[in-house]
Specification:
173 residues
Length: 173
Amino acid sequence: MKRLTLRVPSDLIRRFDAAAASKGGRARLLRRLMEEAAQAPLPELQEPPPGRLTGKLGLRLTPVDLVVLEREAASRGQSRTQWTVALIRARLHGRPQLSRSEAIAFVEVQRELRRIGVNINQIARALNTAVMEGAVLDLEVGQLAAFSDEIRAHLVGVRDAFEGNLAYWTPGP
């Protein structure tokens, strides 16, 4: 059931309450007046476009819980609403929920991996087109191995970051 809230002048509400007293009260009279005004058939319900926020959730928390929530959200650089939405989405979808600083860090990791990939492609192209002596070839192969180790380390870091993010949003034992 939906809720309707409106502001009316004090004298109007007093007069309306007096009229509603003999008709079952304020809510009953309002419902009856709305039903009379809305005699047209109900329109078909339309699905909201995907990704559009249409639902609203209200929470009542104790003052202590609210302070802890605000502190936790602030520690991640989020508002309490952003933090609560991230918590719900993490639980519903089981995917990491990144704060702005985490998202920026992941973009930097992607840039670094892209840079390393470009370097590897350049080395591979050079190896394919050049005839190299043993020492030069060993140097290039060694550099490829170093890049490979660097990529593995970055990938482990990305995996650990995602697992840490999911662990943050998952309730403890």
